[in-house]
């Protein structure tokens, strides 16, 4: 089954982290850009990986710790930029809602 991605001009609602049914979901994708509402629950983590494009993480709510080349912590209102290929892992210190954007700098959509 294909994931639903928003079409140009389509409004979508990002559910709040307080709703237990809120989960990670794809928002939009083109050959050069992807946006994801990333939800990581307290105590859960995303193992170390890297993305082939430039990426940003905006913390909508919660508290997450990033490990990798540079350790960082994100809380509500914090924004982070990572260069292509930067290794990172995410650990949720509290239920966390993040807006993830990936810019495929050379049109390469592969993630590893």
List keywords for this structure.
112 residues; mainly beta; Jelly Rolls; five-stranded antiparallel sheet; four-stranded antiparallel sheet; 9 strands; 47% strand; disordered C terminus; Cupin_2; RmlC_Cupin_sf
Concise synopsis of the structure shown:
This protein is an all-beta fold and 112 residues long.
Give the neighbour order of strands across the main sheet: 1-2-9-4-7
User: Strand pairing plus helix content: what structural class?
Assistant: mainly beta
CATH class, please?
Answer: Mainly Beta
Instruction: Please give the radius of gyration in angstroms.
Output: 14 Å
What kind of assembly state do the chains in view correspond to?
Answer: single chain
CATH topology: Jelly Rolls
From the coordinates shown, what is the CATH architecture? Answer: Sandwich
Describe the structure.
- It comes from Sphingobium baderi.
- With 112 residues, the chain is mainly β.
- The protein has one domain (25-103): Sandwich (Jelly Rolls), CATH 2.60.120.10.
- The chain has no helices and nine strands.
- The chain has strands at 25-29, 33-40, 45-49, 54-61, 63-68, 72-75, 79-82, 88-92, 96-103.
- It has a five-stranded antiparallel sheet, with no helix packed on it. It has a four-stranded antiparallel sheet with strand order 3-8-5-6, with no helix packed on it.
- The two termini are 22 Å apart.
Task: Explain the layout of strands and helices.
Layout: E1 25-29, E2 33-40, E3 45-49, E4 54-61, E5 63-68, E6 72-75, E7 79-82, E8 88-92, E9 96-103
